[in-house]
Design a protein that fits this description.
Helices cover 39% and strands 22% of the residues. By secondary structure, the protein is of the alpha/beta class. The protein has 2 domains: 4-258, Aldolase class I (TIM Barrel); 312-384, Arc Repressor Mutant, subunit A (Orthogonal Bundle). Strand 2 (56-66), helix 2 and strand 3 (90-100) form a beta-alpha-beta unit. 36% of the residues are buried.
């Protein structure tokens, strides 16, 4: 009997109507005329990959990310899902997510998504304040976000996540709390809350360098993080990862694959992949140059770049700084079984100060970061790099 490798699939759709001012992801706002061609190349890339490996896969989750994947219609998305099912054995209860910008959704499109197999919507709301949306360069309004959520519910989508961003230019704690209350009032199954990061090379970075970006100070940003915990917990959401909250049983199955160092196959321009075997794992990525990616797939050539075997020490570090993102933490017995050594043998002395200061703890056989220390998690992760 052939052993099947459990894996997830990530599909990168790099096209947007307009690139947001804060966005550092691989995306293009001048190539919408290529969507059909790109989808066909995605199908070809999946076939090329499947013909190049001996493994048999069992796919638990499929995720359309971007860019703005909701620029695809249901026919295009359905072709990708159908191809993935045929080539990689998509499980009957697979979680299939599409990221969506409210400004690109219609009732017919949402109904089509549901019909083609999409069962989870990740809605990029970011804010329910039109002035904040404008400061980010978003192409939708707060009213469109609410309308899109309600339309998705009416079209049978029962698992919806909302993304919000805090610490925006000119944003106050009270404004952020209004956003949280607006999100909770809609009743999504999942809410992600991110602090704005100013990435080098983005328009916001240029504005900041000119001194024209009135960002909240660190104290106010900390206060916004604390508001998220308080309001969302009181509303029945569990805080299960640094930036993610979910109703019971509604955690993002796909994102947990990343944090638990599971297998994932990425297709599309700039997509990343990782397999835990052989040895301690191998990773690679696709070209982030759209022309190079498309040319490679058209020519029938593998477009895997920077293929890298992962060593034992690097794999241990990944296990820790990814697993510690989750409030459940890392199973210490599982760590020992996977790497042939216990956490204490490798890291305890290095992390002693973290334990003494309460920034790291063990509980029920797991290593974890207490919720109160999640705000400084990057300082903790540095210990394992």
């Amino acid at each position: 009997m052939t052993t099947r490798t459990k894996a997830s699939i990530y599909i990168h759709f790099p096209f947007c109507v307009k690139k947001c001012l804060y966005c550092s992801f691989i995306s293009f706002d001048d190539r919408l005329f290529q969507v059909d061609e790109y989808v066909n190349l995605l199908l070809r890339e999946m076939r090329l990959f499947r013909g190049d490996v001996d493994d048999s896969f069992s796919v638990e989750t499929l995720y359309f990310g971007g860019g703005t994947p909701s620029l695809m219609d249901a026919r295009q998305a359905g072709k990708v899902i159908e191809s993935a099912a045929g080539l990689f054995d998509l499980e009957p209860d697979a979680e299939i997510t599409i990221e969506a910008n409210p400004g690109t959704l219609t009732e017919d499109k949402l109904a089509g998504y549901r019909s083609c197999g999409i069962n989870r919507l990740s809605l990029g709301v970011q804010s329910f304040d039109d002035s904040m949306l404008k400061s980010l360069g978003r192409v939708h309004s707060a009213a469109q976000a609410v309308d899109s959520f309600r339309a998705a519910r009416e079209r049978g989508l029962e698992n919806i996540g909302i993304d919000l961003i805090n610490s925006l230019p000119g944003q106050t704690k009270a404004m952020w709390e209004d956003d949280l209350h607006s999100a909770v009032a809609l009743g999504p199954e999942h809410i992600s809350v991110y602090g704005l990061t100013i990435e080098e090379g983005t328009p916001l970075a240029a504005i900041e360098k000119c001194g024209a970006l009135p960002l909240p100070d660190e104290e106010e940003s900390v206060s916004m993080f604390e508001s998220s915990e308080r309001i969302l917990r009181q509303s029945g959401y569990e805080h299960y990862e640094i930036s993610n909250y979910a109703l019971p049983g509604r955690r993002s199955r796909h994102n947990q694959v990343y944090w638990q160092r599971g297998n994932y196959l990425g297709f599309g321009c700039g997509a990343h992949s990782f397999l835990r075997e052989p040895e301690f794992g191998v990773r690679w990525r696709n070209p982030d140059n759209i022309e190079e990616y498309m040319r490679s797939v058209r020519d029938g050539r593998p477009c895997r770049e920077e293929k890298q075997r992962i060593g034992r020490r690097e794999a241990m570090a990944e296990k820790l700084f990814l697993g510690l993102r989750m409030l459940d933490g890392v199973d210490l017995e599982q760590f020992r079984e996977e790497f042939g050594a216990g956490f204490d043998e490798i890291y305890y002395e290095k992390c002693l100060a973290l334990f003494e200061s309460g920034m790291l703890e063990t509980f029920g056989g797991r290593l974890r970061i207490p919720e109160r220390a999640m705000l400084v998690s990057n300082r903790i992760f540095e210990k394992f790099l």
